[in-house]
Amino acid sequence: MNQLPTITPENLSFPILPGAWPSVGHYPGAAWDTPKVLREAQALGPLVWINLSGWGLIVCHPDGFELLKGKTLSIAPMVRNSGDLVADSVLSVDGAEHRRMRGSMNRPFTPEGLSGEGAAKRMAELVEARSKGMAESTRFNALNELRDLALDIIFGVLGVPDADLPWWREKYQRTLLTSFPIAKSVPFSPAWFARRASAEIGQRLQEEAARAQAEGSPGLLAALAHGRDEHGKGLNAQELVANVRILGLAGHETTASILTWSLAYLSLDDALWDRLVVEANAAGHIPQAPADLKKHPIAEAIFRESLRLNTPLPVMMREIVVPAEVAGVTLPAGTPVRLPLWLWNRDPDRYPEPERYNPDRWLGRDRKPDPVEMSPFGGGAHFCLGYHLAILEGVQLLTAMAQRAQGRRLRLVKGALPAERFFPLIQPQGKDTEMVWERA
Ligand code: HEM
After folding, report:
1. Of 18, 54, 281, 380, which one is least surrounded by beta carbons within 10 A?
2. Cβ-Cβ contacts under 8 Å for 90 (sequence gap 6 or more)
3. Is residue 2 pLDDT above 60, yes or no?
4. What is the DSSP string of 109-131?
5. How far is CA 160 from CA 87, 225, 392, 439, in A?
């Protein structure tokens, strides 16, 4: 990988997005307003140089998705950019190493695995408990509640007992302070607390992983500890711990944001809320397994449409390792690329009136979503491991909230969609996600 030539705007001629700052490039602009920067790039052409964590060719053309499906890309630039966060995990490797890790991790995250390992039922219990709390509150902060739910679900399905979930939640949230730009050695700084929490989590994870090696141990952690790829190879102890960290990182803010956006849209559309309530009450209980999702098309459509318009990970970083064709051009090995999931999910040829929130575009179809429609979850080798879990969690929560409405509607205190924040993910602003119940 290191022998690849370094391709830059100087030796590959494409339009260059103006407005890059010295050393930080377009980052300040993107952190302030990602959609504006992406649209400005799109206006210049299908392939445009942009400086987001270094120069890369942003593939505004929706055909860019094809690149993800092939074997022409490496995840190396993302790894260089993310440092410790992804080290030793499935998100840090390509090719055979990645196939080994993914191969040994996939099974418990398939629909059958989620049902068979008891994860789906455990999720349903945690969703019921959290939605009960929200239903009984006169006012709650949706993003905070759903962040906690997302973390409880990840650690709960791994096998952590209810009583220990608050410990894991608190420590995990602290580890995310690592991104603070203060040296980790400065005592009592956020990064110092993050490092301590990270060490504590690492210690506990090693103990839990060792316990999970024991026969009959419940939860997905045991399934991951014993998982094997098609050649009988699995994760070593260090990789097991790193991948459990990644499950939390990849699966909590993303899912919490989309659930919050879904409740926000519902609070502004009484007709949609009424349809969801009818569907939820007809089903009787929330889905207990992915196979139950067919009874909940409206809840699933709400989740998918919220995800389309609020793609949490707007741009993925890659590097071309084998010459690859995109938008009619062959890009040489060594070309850094930026893949804008956010733009592709607003392609007007695929989604008429792309800016309109319209869950009905997912209904009345006789086919499952195709890979491009699933692209908020990425694509190709690194396609989201938690896809089935996230969809199930979304439908469970929306259904549970509708079932507990009892003639009430949810309202955002703000009375309008939350403002967005753009860094490190696209998320609703937490201060705008306060909700109350109102008699219908
Ligand atoms: C709405 C919710 C979610 C969204 C939008 C989402 C999105 C994504 C995206 C875009 C990627 C690809 C990253 C890349 O290729 O650079 C990814 C990968 C991944 N996601 Fe998710 N994710 C979600 C939920 C989850 C959940 C709930 C889990 C785990 C329980 C999870 C675990 C992972 C893992 C482990 C990977 C890395 C897979 C690999 O490298 O092979 N995600 N996700």
Report:
1. 18
2. 98, 101, 102, 105, 243, 246, 382, 385
3. no
4. GSHHHHHHTTHHHHHHHHHHHHH
5. 24, 15, 20, 38
263 touches 417 (CB < 8 A):
no
Residue (of 254, 64, 62) closest to 150 by Cα position:
254
Q: How remote is the CA of residue 248 from the centroid of ligand 1, in Å?
A: 10
The distance of Cα 436 from the centroid of its chain, to the nearest Å, equals 27
Indicate the length of the chain as a whole number. 440
pLDDT tens-digit readout, 316-332: 999 999 999 999 999 99
Rounded average pLDDT over 230-249 = 90
H or E segment at 58? strand 55-59
What ligand 1 atom has the least distance to the C-alpha of 375? 10
Report domain 27-159+218-439's class.
mainly alpha
> Whole-angstrom Cα distance, residue 193 to residue 200?
11
Say which range, 28-32, 216-220, 384-388, has the weakest mean pLDDT.
216-220
What percent of the chain shows pLDDT beyond 90? Answer: 76
Closest CA to 312 of 265, 376, 358, 267: 376
Residue 105 Cβ contacting ligand 1 at under 6 Å: no
Tell me how far apart the alpha carbons of residues 149 and 146 are, in angstroms, rounded to a whole number: 5
Q: How confident is the model at residue 1 (pLDDT cuts 50, 70, 90)?
A: very low
| Ligand 1 atom index nearest CA of 258 | 1
Ligand 1 mutation pick, 384, 426, 427, max ligand atoms within 8 A of CB: 384
**Mean pLDDT, all residues of the chain:** 92
| 259-263: average pLDDT | 98
Domain extents for the chain?
Answer: 27-159+218-439
Average pLDDT over residues 174-198: 67
> Cα–Cα distance between 430 and 139 in angstroms, integer?
14
What is the average pLDDT across 382-389? 98
